[in-house]
Design brief:
Layout (H helix, E strand, L loop, with lengths): L14 H13 L20 E5 L6 E6 L9 H18 L8 E6 L7 H12 L8 E5 L7 E6 L4 H11 L7 E5 L7 H5 L4 E7 L16 H29 L1
């Protein structure tokens, strides 16, 4: 189809091989030849979509439900799915909330494929033009800080959110630019304002010890305080812009 599969070239290697590569890189220029002995098989994945409100979505909220194939994925990314479900619970009680798509994406770990499919599908069905904002939850249940990976046109909004929630969020909040590492990136690539919530550092992600013992619900709750405030801010901005247009 000509659609890109991966946002960047990458390979997964063992810790021991990574240490060897680091040592070689420190010694000068290095050329590497990668050999993949695995056989490829056709696999299927699905995005699970829930709509709140009527009409095409103005806001897209994402969290990926897959994990690395050898990891239970309690933090990465059951915690993100939990936050998305909690946002659904909050905003289904409000009849005036703007049309929002809540999407549990598949195949994030394989190269953001579920989110890329969302963008392609919306483009093909003339829906993407209605999307004004994208918010993404990714591994938010362990870490020393709440990191906001900020896409285009979102920094001022998030500054307001940080200021409004500072009495209820005890973890440090760090702002960094958006990266091609999670499901908000395909929306960044087509020019839609976006951001990602993630708690860092989490050295156990993609390991077989990413279990519920690592899951800290107090961190999830703090992220949810910020996320609810952000979504209300986006709601008010969409409603104000619609009123000014009328």
């Amino acid at each position: 189809s000509g659609r890109p599969l991966l946002p960047q070239i990458g390979a997964i290697v063992s810790d021991a091989d990574a240490a060897k590569l680091d040592m070689l890189l420190d010694s000068g220029d290095v050329r590497a030849r990668l050999f993949n002995p695995c056989t490829q098989q056709v696999a299927q994945s699905q995005n699970v979509i829930g709509m709140l409100g009527e009409g095409p979505p103005s806001i897209v909220v994402l969290a990926h439900y897959d994990s690395a194939f050898y990891s239970p994925g309690a933090v990465d990314n059951a915690s993100g799915i939990q936050a998305m479900f909690d946002m659904i619970d909050i905003f289904t009680k409000e009849s005036s909330f703007p049309a929002t798509a809540f999407i549990a994406t598949g195949c994030e770990e394989a190269g953001l494929l579920g989110a890329q499919h969302c963008v392609y599908h919306m483009q093909e069905h003339d829906l993407l033009k209605h999307v004004q904002y994208c918010v993404n939850f990714d591994m938010i249940a362990n870490g020393a800080n709440i990191t906001l990976r900020i896409g285009r046109e979102m920094e001022t909004l998030l500054d307001d959110v940080i200021a409004e929630t500072k009495e209820r969020v005890t973890l440090p909040v760090k702002k960094v630019p958006a990266l091609a590492v999670s499901d908000n990136w395909p929306f960044e690539a087509v020019g839609i304002p976006n951001m990602q919530f993630v708690a860092l550092p989490y050295p156990l992600y993609h390991l077989d010890c990413d279990t519920m013992e690592q899951y800290d619900d107090s961190i999830v709750q703090q992220v949810e305080v910020m996320a609810e405030t952000l979504l209300r801010t986006l709601h008010n901005r969409i409603r104000r812009n619609a009123h000014e247009t009328d």
